[in-house]
Amino acid sequence: GNVRMRFAAAAQNVTRSHLEWHVPRNDNHSYHSKITIKFCNSVWNHHRIELSQPHGYNKLSPTFEGVQPCNATTPLGQMVACPQPHKNEQVRCQECHIDNDACHSVYVGHNLLGSEIHWLPPKVLQQWWDDATTTSTRKRNFLLDTLDQEFVDSFRNDLSHLTPGNQRWCQSLKKPRPTMRHMWLSNHEGMKNCSYDMASRIDAEFHDAWSKQTSNN
Q1: 143, pLDDT greater than 80
Q2: Closest to 79 (Cα-Cα) out of 162, 137, 144
Q3: What confidence score (pLDDT) does residue 167 get?
Q4: N or C, where is the chain less crowded by C-beta within 10 Å?
Q5: Which helix (H) or strand (E) holds 109?
Q6: Cβ–Cβ under 8 Å, residues 107 and 44
Q7: What angle do CA 202, 204, 207 make, to 5 degrees?
Q8: Rounded distance between C-alpha atoms, residue 81 and residue 69, angstroms
Q9: Mean of the per-residue pLDDT values for the chain?
Q10: Residue 51 in contact with residue 69, Cβ under 8 Å?
């Protein structure tokens, strides 16, 4: 909390009290830049694999930000198979709406490294992947250079399905990404099953591409 409070206080024009440091909508702050950048605190759920319990039900361990069930084990799998539900735009970070092509936010929270990007707008994720997988970028980065072009293209296609309303997100059911968290928890119309199948596929494709390329280096 103390570290997050200091990030909040580092912005310009902070007028909210020290007791309201975590409520960025209570003043007109911004970080020094040519564009408006806003503070955002602990609004995104954690990804957690559900744990089987001896009494016949599954339980997600509680966290400060709340939990979204997800069986993906890679950041890329989590990004596509378990996108943050987006129905309530009020809980999103300021300057980072679902249709934006940029996300001008300083986000702080307790999310595990690598699992904190599932909430970014689809256009931002698509642009990041395009920039990260250009020939010049990949040559400078061993981790990216190990991925073959087939996987790069396949994952680019997966990212395109994150656009709200795109019924190719869940191709077997012809359903778009879930809009509300309860759809995950109740497996609404098979949403969770579709997510699990997708997570397994993307994780497997990534591990296959990674192991195949690293074995040749």
Answers
A1: no
A2: 162
A3: 93
A4: C
A5: none
A6: yes
A7: 110
A8: 11
A9: 83
A10: no
